[in-house]
Amino acid sequence: MRIGEGVEWGLHCCLTLAWLGEEPVSTAKFATLFELPPAYLKKRLQALVRAGILTSTPGAKGGFLLARPPERITLMDVVTALEGPDEAFRCTEIRQRGVEPSPEFARPCGVAAAMRKAELAWRRELAAQSVADLVAAAPPGAAARMRQRYARL
Amino acid sequence: MRIGEGVEWGLHCCLTLAWLGEEPVSTAKFATLFELPPAYLKKRLQALVRAGILTSTPGAKGGFLLARPPERITLMDVVTALEGPDEAFRCTEIRQRGVEPSPEFARPCGVAAAMRKAELAWRRELAAQSVADLVAAAPPGAAARMRQRYARL
Fold this sequence. Notes:
Chains A, B: InterPro entries: TR_Rrf2-type_CS (IPR030489), Tscrpt_reg_Rrf2 (IPR000944), WH-like_DNA-bd_sf (IPR036388), WH_DNA-bd_sf (IPR036390). Chains A, B: This is Transcriptional regulator, BadM/Rrf2 family. Chains A, B: GO terms for molecular function: DNA-binding transcription factor activity. Chains A, B: Pfam families: Rrf2. Chains A, B: It comes from Nonomuraea pusilla. The first copy, chain A, is 54% helix and 5% strand. Chain A is mainly alpha-helical. The first copy, chain A, has one domain (5-151): Arc Repressor Mutant, subunit A. A two-stranded antiparallel ribbon of chain A has the order 1-2. In chain A, a hairpin with a 5-residue loop joins strand 1 and strand 2 (63-66). In chain A, helix 4 crosses helix 5 (110-127). The longest helix of chain A has 18 residues, at 110-127.
């Protein structure tokens, strides 16, 4: 099981936008800041726009901004936007193979239910943490240092 | 993010072995029961043997058995055996790119820590559920029905 690298990129971009405040940041500048491939990064940022997490304005002064306050963007929002809404465990109902149809199959498969229970714990924890929490957990001065770096780009 | 189909296969095989008791089950019989590709299934079963979850005995009467009581095989054991021990979220430390080395990087990245917190909730829930819990959650008569099916193979 692996979460795509886009989640790390997306979360750092959201955190950076929270630090920079009202400054729209272009794909090119994000790519420079984090030494990431611009074309791949752009796809991830566009997915965050489609999910309503970022807004995008075109033009030389344009770029991406958080679409809502950092406390209203959860890690679950970002993960879902980038990894899709599907459950990580996909039940293919192998319990039903080679067996006559039975009313017991109306009940969810116990294996799937157990895996789902664990996945819900993961989702609950992701939903309980926001970009504002990332801001709060950052080392002292991190926002100021990012603003200085950004000003020099 | 996606958990491989092998986890569904492996859990159903463990549950089946718990139902059948002391009956060693061959790859071929598991493959027939669940209509699975024998070669791929065998790799998954061998991974469970390497992880100490199953034992394997060769020969015509041989097959796989649970290596320990069902209450001592957790879903976490099976998932780790089949998906590997790595964390789903891999931090590549993009926060450090293009920046001078700094003592603040001795602290874990806040993004990675937040993602890890959620993943630990998932792992804790998987570790809290055992194959014995799957047995307990199955519909009434499921073990007897499996024993009947198996006897007809």
